[in-house]
Amino acid sequence: MPKGSDLLVAALANEGVRRIFTVPGEENLDVVESLRSSEVELILTRHEQGAAFMAATYGRLTGKPGVCMTTLGPARSI
């Protein structure tokens, strides 16, 4: 029986997603594992903002969906 993350990755691939720019973490580990056995390429980044810029630029330059996936980050309290 497929997991929810497998279904998500299959749906993204069906929509034409070829690359996902990501900051991996505990919260998205199931999706990262499902991506390992898919045709979608996982591109690791060091910062959420960099992943977002890369996905946006990729989408604009190629006309294909640009996808950014991040994890929880530290919160700032003032």
Task: Give the key terms.
alpha/beta, 44% helix, 78 residues, single chain, 3 helices, 3 strands, flat
Number of helices: 3
State the order of secondary-structure elements, H for helix, E for strand.
Answer: HEHEHE
Backbone structural class: alpha/beta
Strand order of the largest sheet: 2-1-3
Let me know the largest β-sheet: 3 strands, parallel
- Structural shape: flat
- What is the helix fraction of residues, given as a range? 40-55%
Distance between the termini: 46 Å
Our Rg estimate from Cα atoms comes to: 13 Å
Q: Tell me what portion of residues adopts beta-strand conformation.
A: 5-15%
| Number of DSSP strand runs | 3
Low-pLDDT runs: none
In round numbers, the mean pLDDT is 90
Overview of the molecule:
By secondary structure, the protein is an alpha/beta fold. The chain has helices at 4-14, 29-36, 48-62, and strands at residues 19-22, 41-44, 67-69. The chain is built from 3 helices and 3 strands; from the N terminus they run αβαβαβ. Strand 1 (19-22), helix 2 and strand 2 (41-44) form a beta-alpha-beta unit. It is flat and about 35 Å long. The model has no long low-confidence stretch (mean pLDDT 90).
Task: Describe what is shown at a glance.
The protein has 78 residues and is α/β, with parallel strands linked by helices. The protein is built from three helices and three strands. It starts with a helix and ends in a 9-residue tail after the last strand.
List the helices and strands and how they pair.
Blueprint: H1 4-14, E1 19-22, H2 29-36, E2 41-44, H3 48-62, E3 67-69
Parallel strand pairs: 1-2, 1-3
